[in-house]
Amino acid sequence: MSANGLLQIALFLGVLLALTKPLGWYMARVYEGKLPAFVRWMAPAENLFYRLCGVNREEEMRWTRYAFAVLWFSLLGVLAVYAMQRLQGLLPLNPQHFGAISPDSSFNTTLSFVTNTNWQGYVGESTMSYLTQMVALAVQNFFSAASGMAVLVALIRGLARHSAETIGNFWVDMTRSIVYILLPLSVLLALVLVSQGVVQNFSEYKSVPLVDGVSYDQPKLDAAGNPMKDATGNPVTEKMTVKEQTIALGPVASQEAIKELGTNGGGFFNANSAHPFENPTPLTNFLEMLAIFLIPAALCYTFGSMVGDTRQGWAILAAMTVLFAGFLAVAEISEQQGNPAFAALGVDQTASATQPGGNMEGKETRFGIVNSALFATVTTAASCGAVNSMHDSFMPLGGLVPLAQIQLGEVVFGGVGSGLYVMLIYAVIAVFIAGLMIGRTPEYLGKKIEVFDIKMASLVILIPPLIILGGTALAVMLDAGKSSIFNPGAHGFSEVLYAFTSAVGNNGSAFAGISANTPFYNTALGFSAWFGRFWLMIPVLALAGSLAAKKRIPEGAGTMHTHTPIFVGLLIGTVILVGALTFVPALGLGPIVEHLTMIGAH
Amino acid sequence: MTSRSKTFSLFDREIAKQALWDALKKLTPQQQMKNPVMFVVWIGSILTTILFFQALGGHGEAPIGFILAITLWLWFTVLFANFAEALAEGRSKAQAASLRAAKKTVLAKKLREPRYGAQLDSVPGTDLRRGDVVLMEAGDMIPADGEVIEGVASVNESAITGESAPVIRESGGDFNAVTGGTTVLSDWLVVRVTVNPGEAFIDRMIAMVEGAKRQKTPNEIALTILLVAMTIIFLLATVTLLPFSLYSVEVAKAGQPVTITVLVALLVCLIPTTIGGLLSAIGVAGMGRMMQKNVIATSGRAVEAAGDVDVLLLDKTGTITLGNRQANQFHPASGVTERELADAAQLASLADETPEGRSIVVLAKQKFELRERNIHELGATFVPFTAHTRMSGVNLDARQIRKGASDSIRDHVKSLGGDFPHDVQTLVDDAARRGSTPLVVADGTKVLGVVELKDIVKGGIKERFAELRRMGIKTIMITGDNRLTAAAIAAEAGVDDFLAEATPEAKLKLIREHQSQGRLVAMTGDGTNDAPALAQADVAVAMNTGTQAAKEAGNMVDLDSNPTKLIEIVETGKQMLMTRGALTTFSIANDVAKYFAIIPAAFVTTYPALAALNVMHLATPASAILSAVIFNALIIVALIPLALKGVKYRPVGAEVLLRNNLLIYGVGGIIVPFIGIKLIDMILVTFGWV
């Protein structure tokens, strides 16, 4: 990699780590209800919400009620988003007059946005009205992010409190996440994006004639929307010629900001952050990547601050950063090395003053190798799923990185709130195994880890592989699953595995190459996202309740410290051994064999 | 500490033989289901056995020899785990047998009325119920646990404690408890039986040691849950491999789908069989190790809790200091020589049979060669200590020699019209400040000086406390002494804190205070007045010489009645946890190498490029899979000694301990199987078995 590339990565990590402490400190103050003076003017807005909804801000909830509130709130979101898509044709702010969206696609999109997954089976600019984009989807971007942060804060309280029955108030935690954290940051980021050329309007799409017509092949769909195959099983395509281009517009900037800040990832346009109206310049690219990691990284500091020992937060952040650096190195190096198949065709893949070199298939020239691989690693480390390049076109090992990061449980920074709460579960498991090794009943932050806690932690590590592997197995057994695969072979298998991994991990990015907007995938992936989200949240909240009720054991000479480099190493080891070993056989039949076959052939 | 023939070599021939047989008997589904991880292996073995018979019928999914080899080694895996458990149980049973030998049926002399001399009935000892009163005379074996209500006797308790020196048992006070199976050596005792048949102390000991009543400890349950979760995850990872493989074969149009035999082999290799197979052996062996240390725990939970102890409360007397104060210095008043003082003190103590009195005589002899004189030959009369005068001494001719606490002597001297000199008061205060007990000696109205009685701190105790501190345990000394004395002894013994002028209420309060801060409190005690505090403490070790009340209140009994035994109890508790943690880490770390052995072997026919992952260069796919399965089975046997002995605990601090064990069992766990599997593969190839 070039010095310039390294410098860009260093700059990214440097700015990120520099912002971690101030934002983390600020969020801790917000959640503890000790608002810093410079935001107190916003308090009336917060209070207005409580008055309107009849919330008593002083009221504390037990974990069961907290979980019920999360589920209830999400269910309301599901109903609203589904109804808006189905009734889209009757609603205003629809200059392109898009009709109702199919039931299965609406179902998928609804669950996908409520769970912070933002898997998109639909094509935004040709299906969703501005109203649906703004009121249904963008609002869920805020709500799903805020509920993830709320659950994390509840877990932190469980660790920070002792001999307590309650873990906070969901409505308050969620309102504060939106009013004081997500909204101000989104406004700020949206303004900068607009200054760089991201569009923000309600106008109709513009049509412009093309200088030359373009012809391309498109998979032919049958009446049910499934891709058709000929007698030999190859997809049937039809030839299309285009002489005119429609330029899609809309209120993009406002949705773009929260898409990254809330690690949602659902693009306004189908091309997501590769689209010039979503991500026009290297500066916006830098800011979007920063926005993805900003809150997940800062929440580590918030965690440390709220449990009264910031070293604990830094240790978790260190483990995340080391894992991230490792994955990033693999992605950058394999993409920069280029594709031996291209080399055989005589394509110049050497970096020079005029080109970035490496595997540029599916990448934007304004981002090049470094910022495409970095974006891909960032967006899958955090459960964002926004993309500025096509992961499907990455080298096998480059594509393994996003896949593996999601399979680890989205703990390398992870989604806002959700990344850290799953990482804390890994910390509990690491503490349990290692704690036994020093001859004491394991304890984390002074809380004994006992039978109930291990039960809940086990559920959290058990459920994602259950759904990912089960779903993938189902898809490759059923015709409904297999017929969507355009690239039969190891790569097709990787694509299906990626789809389920992305849904369960609430990431939402895709290996393109399977047509996922089919009843089978819409339904299967919708349920995957739902279980991947809430079946983890419930045990996490149960753990929070159990931890809050425990006594806090004062630190003594026999206490294992959880802020030391050894612990960081142990945590990384646990994430890799417990998180990744499950997926090794599946990865072996996907990207690994692709890579070995590729280097074997060339 | 006493040493008894209660330790058995690790693979005692007899025990091992019995264990092999028991391992087979444990193959029933009821037994296997108790251990979820091994149950999966058991099911897998049955599955491959069926596949083998199917292959015999000519419809084999793989070469019949391969299926047979895998099947056999899977059964071995199950048997090895059973063997480990049976071996641990066998060792414990052997210990129990040596206890049971003590439990013979004896005829008891049941008294119709609870007094010495009442009418006797001869009944079998096993028929005695709680509340019965029995008489025991010299030579009788005590038939059941009870408390002495009349009489004094010497009792041989070696059957329980291994200590051959007789102990005194008498009514009232702290030495009124007798244990079934011990023998009265002299005199007689009238004892009220305190237990019903089968509940006796020795019965409970046997049941505990045999493991019959062994309940899983909380940490063991938590670990089992984690292991089950991992087993389910790996079950899923292997089960879904079949459709993945079918699809891969379909699209690659090459090779064969993975066989059920290979999938079962992969599953067994991946699930944590090492820890799963040895888990219960670790628990049984832990209890057995306690037994070797002459400690009987009433539950495994108590042993495990011992590993977590943060605070240890110790009685001063008999624990930190030798039981009694001893004279170690004469401080004469001005105008009196030390020899004069020693002479008077010796005279005052000649007839004083208390240990303090004897120590004065001894000191006088050591320092001034003052021989012991016979009080009767001197024509002296002994004035014994009374609660009223709080002095003792002799009247010799006209001389009234007295020794006692400074207040008592002051009153005595003043009542005779004498004066208590100021310099003696200074001597008294100095001695008290040093943690000693000052005894003032007066001859008539003349105060001669002060004898300093000192608590003698046990040799080596300071080092023991330092060790406890390194373990992270805070020691607190409990004493009835005043603060000044207590502080001085605490400093000398090196305890972290002390509770002076302790009453039973104060002890209880101290324990509750620490517990409310989340600390785990251990306490040792022997007296009836210790019982409430023992009941409150999380880990309570009662001395076997203590009262029945103390033993009932504790959750462990130390047969050696050695209060610093707690250090060893803590170590054993920690070892149990460490062994489990170490083997769990090892077991999970092993999976890396097993993947490298099995994944390429299983799918190389479909994707030849996967051969690149065969980093160990194992000979053939069959040898690779078989080697991994064999390694997985043999590692259980190889680790049985570690499971039974436990991972060594050293008080080096949590960080160092964690680093060392992570290096050994984590990093080692990744590396060892690479070597082991390669070696097994080479052996298989060399002998042409694959």
From TrEMBL, chain A:
TM ranges: 66-84, 135-158, 178-199, 286-307, 313-331, 411-438, 459-478, 527-545, 566-588
Name of a matching Pfam family: KdpA
Domain of life: Bacteria
Subcellular location: Cell membrane
Membrane topology recorded in Swiss-Prot or TrEMBL: Multi-pass membrane protein
UniProt cross-references to InterPro entries, sorted A to Z: KdpA (IPR004623)
GO cellular component: plasma membrane
Gene Ontology molecular-function annotations: P-type potassium transmembrane transporter activity; potassium ion binding
UniProt keyword list: Cell membrane, Ion transport, Membrane, Potassium, Potassium transport, Transmembrane, Transmembrane helix, Transport
Subunit structure: The system is composed of three essential subunits: KdpA, KdpB and KdpC.
Family: Belongs to the KdpA family.
Function of the protein: Part of the high-affinity ATP-driven potassium transport (or Kdp) system, which catalyzes the hydrolysis of ATP coupled with the electrogenic transport of potassium into the cytoplasm. This subunit binds the extracellular potassium ions and delivers the ions to the membrane domain of KdpB through an intramembrane tunnel.
Listed name of the protein: Potassium-transporting ATPase potassium-binding subunit
From TrEMBL, chain B:
Any one GO cellular component localisation term in the record: plasma membrane
Gene Ontology MF term list: ATP binding; ATP hydrolysis activity; magnesium ion binding; P-type potassium transmembrane transporter activity
Annotated Gene3D superfamilies: Calcium-transporting ATPase, cytoplasmic domain N, Calcium-transporting ATPase, cytoplasmic transduction domain A, HAD superfamily/HAD-like
Reaction equations catalysed: K(+)(out) + ATP + H2O = K(+)(in) + ADP + phosphate + H(+)
UniProt-listed Pfam families: E1-E2_ATPase, Hydrolase
CDD domains in the record: P-type_ATPase_K
Principal EC category: translocase
Presence of keyword Ligase: no
Binding site for ATP: 352, 356, 385-392, 403
UniProtKB keywords: ATP-binding, Cell membrane, Ion transport, Magnesium, Membrane, Metal-binding, Nucleotide-binding, Phosphoprotein, Potassium, Potassium transport, Translocase, Transmembrane, Transmembrane helix, Transport
Enzyme active site: 315
Subcellular location: Cell membrane
TM stretches of this protein: 36-56, 62-83, 221-246, 258-284, 595-616, 622-642, 662-689
Major localization listed first in the record, in broad terms: membrane
Enzyme nomenclature, EC number: 7.2.2.6
Residues of the P-type ATPase A domain: 118-210
Protein topology in the membrane: Multi-pass membrane protein
UniProt-annotated binding residues for Mg(2+): 526, 530
Role according to the record: Part of the high-affinity ATP-driven potassium transport (or Kdp) system, which catalyzes the hydrolysis of ATP coupled with the electrogenic transport of potassium into the cytoplasm. This subunit is responsible for energy coupling to the transport system and for the release of the potassium ions to the cytoplasm.
Family assignment from sequence similarity: Belongs to the cation transport ATPase (P-type) (TC 3.A.3) family. Type IA subfamily.
Subunit composition and interactions: The system is composed of three essential subunits: KdpA, KdpB and KdpC.
HAMAP family: KdpB (MF_00285)
Protein name: Potassium-transporting ATPase ATP-binding subunit
Native source organism of the sequence: Sulfuriferula multivorans
Gene: kdpB
